[in-house]
Design a protein that fits this description.
Blueprint (H helix, E strand, L loop, with lengths): L1 E6 L3 H11 L5 E6 L2 H10 L4 E5 L7 H11 L4 E6 L4 H10 L3 E4 L4 H23 L1 H4 L7 H21 L7 H8 L3 H12 L3 H17 L6 H7 L5 H12 L3 H9 L5
Parallel strand pairs: 1-2, 1-3, 3-4, 4-5
Helix pairs in contact: 2-3, 5-7, 8-9
């Protein structure tokens, strides 16, 4: 069961979102009519995902989300806003939100965002589930090697669903697994043949390539969407991995070049 909190000061908006999400029997829904209640309910009900309106009285969605994430860092936040200005999206993603939806909400946009959030929650749960299996296990013997391979397959799945998060790192994943970061790095490289950081970078660059096929997305938007808080750093990483700057790559595929 995935617990979802809908925080919006407009009752009709909450009702619309509840109607959309209630079709899924695996979702347990809660409602909050302002930011202060959202903070309280997020911890009280131990929710997994929060659909958070940005503009609310008393405590706005941005500040409420900061407080929720401080207490529960792995909560997935999806912002709802009437503002299409990209600065709002940038602030939301940098804060740790996984997505944002524009009002009036579209059913497919809501379902897409929730599907993404649920995938992240499930990947995290699967990752945490392997912790007891590898705890106090010698990962060097035959049985340990098998357990290590299982753990790394879960780590890879977790990374595939969370590469867009700014705070994704070797330290954050090792913390989830309750193992030493250096040890995780070593086991990951041994099981996958790829450096941990290189694996994340490759996921981000592959996603960026897909986004670059959309001529309406700016480089800054794309950088933000794949986990970079600096468009210049994203451009350097992209060129290092592809040989093209993002702008050059966009022109290359527009001319029919290979991806």
């Amino acid at each position: 069961m995935i617990k979802i909190l809908i925080a919006d000061d407009e009752s009709i908006e909450r009702e619309i979102l509840c109607r959309i999400l209630s079709e899924n029997p695996l979702l347990e829904l809660y409602q909050a009519e302002n930011g202060r209640l959202a903070v309280t309910f997020a911890e009280l009900f131990d929710v997994d995902v929060v659909l958070m309106d940005i503009e609310m009285p008393a405590l706005d969605g941005i500040e409420a989300s900061k407080q929720i994430l401080k207490a529960k860092p792995y909560t997935r936040i999806v912002f709802i806003t009437a503002y299409s200005i990209f600065s709002y999206a940038c602030e939301a993603v940098k804060l740790g939100a996984i997505d944002y939806i524009l009002k009036p909400v579209d059913k497919q946009d809501v379902l897409r965002a929730i599907k993404r959030a649920v995938s992240q929650v499930e990947a995290e749960r699967q990752l945490k589930a392997v912790v007891p299996e590898v705890a106090n296990q010698d990962l060097e013997d035959d049985e340990g090697t098998e357990k290590a391979a299982l753990m790394m397959s879960k780590v890879k799945k977790y990374l595939e669903h969370n590469y867009m998060n700014y705070d994704l790192s070797l330290d954050s994943v090792s913390s989830l697994l309750h193992i030493n970061a250096s040890y995780l790095s070593c086991i990951f490289k041994r099981c996958t043949g790829v450096n941990f950081i290189d694996y994340i970078t490759n996921l981000r660059i592959c996603a960026a390539k897909e986004y670059l096929s959309d001529p309406f997305k700016t480089i800054t938007e794309i950088a933000t969407s794949v986990g970079y808080d600096s468009s210049s750093y994203f451009s350097r990483a992209f060129k290092k991995n592809t040989g093209y700057t993002p702008t050059e790559y966009r022109k290359h595929i527009a001319r029919g070049g290979s991806r």
